[in-house]
User: What shape does this take?
Amino acid sequence: MAPRTVTLIENCRPVAVEAVVRGDTIRLAPPALEKALGWELKPEGLCRAETCIPVRDGTGLVHEDGIDLAALARLLDCPLAVDEDVVVFGASAAYRANRLASMEAPDFVLPDLGGRLHSLRDQRGKKTLLIAWASW
Assistant: This one.
């Protein structure tokens, strides 16, 4: 089957890569996986920076037409959402649990009514009231 372009998103960063798509199965060639997510297939396993995860034969990860993204998500313990030609890797349960346990909100920047930008980072250590509203 001929590869087609899919958009892979991790950490809110979209990357267009060529993938083999067969029904619900999406596979990436190892160079495309490295380009999109930074994971490189090495003899010691799947590695990104200083982290290496051993890959056993029975994981269903590596196939002749590429690396199966559903198997990769299971190996990384992170949720995977697929819609047409868009694939999104969510944060792992362990990462989310650690963030919640830290009781520290992630930084963000929002404008006030005058257009001046405010960062949550600038409010650290101060009592801060956040009011959110959505029309939906």
Notes: The two ends are 41 Å apart (CA to CA).
